[in-house]
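Structure (tokenized):
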């Protein structure tokens, strides 16, 4: 079978964020599992993904079709891009098309699958849902309703898709994300120290890795960290890692007002090659987000042998299970108490590390790819 895959996430602002990483890892696993049965045709921007996104073997194995990049964030721009995209798909001869980021053209000429990571715009609304975003989500809803199957990355997302987009549950299939083998407890302590020195980090540190939009609840994390420092008197760093593009300067005033200068370090973008060391060197990984569609950094941290403190909301309890310490993200005192527990209680830390590694090992991209390939077969049967 000849399958088209939306790979635009490999060439836009999302290339190093969740969508880009999801696309790259899933395509690599699909290429490994296809075994000559499936031709993969990627539709993306430019002449193909750079070598730091897809491994060389996968890049040679897949076909690449370049698509035009237009201004989607106007209604006319969205319609034009969807029309032109559908023409490229029609000309490629693919038998079915898999939309990776629920940004699926409603004009596609073949059966479709669509992956939905989250419906954050519709769940949280507020600052996320302006007129253009509303029009964008209407396109997405129409595309999902036309798709043979909707792939949800978590049961939480599946429930949102059923409730908000009113798609029958029997057409929604949950296929979780995976963790690559590079994420494992560090064996070379010197390599870890070299990587974190390169990022300007001093030990010991708590780690947050992710975006900086309001749903990440980072103001409450800073308040909790202040309470932790006050109650313990420890000299600890809070590392806030991730690209702050679009949120430059965000939280700087809060850091100053709370007197946390010298205790909070913003790394900016961190290359994926440094992430295992960054996770592995942390005293704990902290994520107090108000909403996640999945929460891959939680699994990556656990795979690296780092205990996890996380919100008990949205998909997070589903992903973490009993392998992490769950807290109320709206209660800075409870977050601070969790940080203290992971700082002071060696027995609790060791238990969470053991559970976390076991939990993370159950999520693999090869398993995700096998389930996606089966959906391709069912779509064409």
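Design, position by position:
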């Amino acid at each position: 079978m000849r399958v088209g895959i939306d790979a635009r996430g490999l060439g836009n602002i999302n290339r190093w964020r969740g969508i880009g990483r999801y696309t790259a890892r899933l395509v690599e696993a699909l290429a490994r599992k296809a075994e000559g049965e499936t031709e993969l045709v990627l539709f993306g921007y430019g002449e193909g993904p750079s070598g730091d996104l897809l491994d060389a073997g996968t890049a040679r194995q897949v076909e690449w079709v370049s698509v035009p990049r237009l201004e989607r964030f106007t209604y006319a721009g969205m319609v034009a891009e969807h029309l032109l995209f559908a023409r490229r798909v029609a000309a490629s001869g693919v038998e079915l098309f898999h939309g990776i980021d629920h940004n699926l053209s409603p004009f596609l000429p073949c059966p479709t699958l669509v992956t939905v990571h989250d419906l954050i715009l519709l769940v949280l609304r507020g600052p996320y849902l302006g007129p253009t975003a509303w029009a964008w989500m209407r396109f997405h809803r129409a595309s999902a309703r036309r798709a043979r199957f909707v792939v949800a990355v978590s049961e939480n997302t599946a429930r949102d898709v059923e409730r908000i987009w009113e798609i029958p549950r029997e057409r929604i299939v949950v296929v979780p994300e995976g963790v690559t083998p590079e994420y494992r407890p560090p064996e070379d302590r010197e390599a870890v120290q070299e990587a974190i020195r390169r990022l300007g980090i001093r030990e010991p540190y708590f780690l947050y890795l992710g975006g900086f939009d309001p749903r990440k609840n980072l103001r409450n994390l800073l308040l909790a960290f202040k309470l932790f420092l006050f109650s313990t008197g420890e000299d600890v760093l809070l590392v806030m890692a991730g690209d702050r593009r679009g949120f430059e300067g965000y939280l700087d005033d809060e850091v100053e007002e709370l007197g946390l200068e010298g205790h909070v370090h913003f790394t900016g973008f961190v290359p994926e090659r440094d992430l295992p060391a960054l996770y592995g060197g942390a005293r704990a990984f902290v994520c107090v987000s108000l909403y996640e569609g999945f929460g891959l950094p939680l699994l990556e941290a656990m795979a690296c042998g780092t205990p996890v403190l996380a919100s008990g909301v949205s998909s997070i309890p589903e992903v973490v299970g009993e392998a992490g310490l769950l807290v109320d993200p709206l209660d800075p005192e409870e977050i601070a108490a969790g940080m203290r527990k992971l700082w002071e209680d060696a027995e609790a830390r060791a238990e969470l590390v053991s559970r976390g590694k076991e939990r993370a090992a159950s999520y693999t991209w090869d398993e995700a790819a096998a389930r996606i390939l089966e959906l391709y077969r069912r779509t064409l049967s």
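Reviewer-requested clarification: The longest strand covers residues 39-44. The two ends are 11 Å apart (CA to CA).
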